[in-house]
Amino acid sequence: MVKKNNENELDAEARRPRVGFLWAAGVLCVMAVLTYLSENVIVGPRGEGALGYAIVLGIEILIAMCLLLCYRVPRLGNRLLGFDMMLKKPSKGEKSSMSYTGSFHVETGAAEKRMNTRRKEARYSRRKLAEVTRQMQAEKTAQKSEEDKS
């Protein structure tokens, strides 16, 4: 009962939206407004900095929107922060022992199963090759012994 309660707490914590994304988006929005208000300073009197101004303003707005998305979709934001590892449960065909690097699983049970199958196939082919080699050597020795007799 305690373990299940602990798992529920971890699951709730991992699914909770992070307020840091909201704060960072707010800061970027303020920076975008300041960039917009200082258009005359950035662009200049002849308009030589118009492209740079547009790029800076666009990047600020896009990053702010991505941060808002990470706040609104906690699974995406938590994956970026590395909390998604707690949420991912192994599928039915995979083994429960998985190796994780950050929040991305590297080796699954299915990959381990494929590797074991390849090992078995390689072992079988080596045994077949050894058997054929032994038969060829036996034939050669039989031929040599017949030649020696004659």
Short overview:
With 150 residues, the protein is mainly alpha-helical. The chain has helices spanning 2-15, 19-37, 39-43, 50-72, 74-81, 84-87, 109-149, and strands at 99-101, 104-107. A hairpin with a 2-residue loop joins strand 1 and strand 2 (104-107).
Structure overview:
- With 150 residues, this protein is mostly helical.
- It is 76% helix and 5% strand.
- It is built from 7 helices and 2 strands.
- A two-stranded antiparallel sheet has the order 1-2.
- Helix 2 (19-37) runs antiparallel to helix 4 and helix 4 packs across helix 5.
- The longest helix has 41 residues, at 109-149.
- The radius of gyration is 32 Å and the shape is elongated.
- The N and C termini lie far apart (86 Å).
- The mean pLDDT is 81.
Helical content (DSSP H or I, runs of 4+) = over 70%
Order of helices and strands: HHHHHHEEH
Backbone shape: elongated
**Structural class, please?**
mainly alpha
Indicate the topology.
Elements: H1 2-15, H2 19-37, H3 39-43, H4 50-72, H5 74-81, H6 84-87, E1 99-101, E2 104-107, H7 109-149
Antiparallel strand pairs: 1-2
Helix pairs in contact: 2-4, 4-5
What labels describe this entry?
single chain; 150 residues; mainly alpha; two-stranded antiparallel sheet; 7 helices; 2 strands; elongated
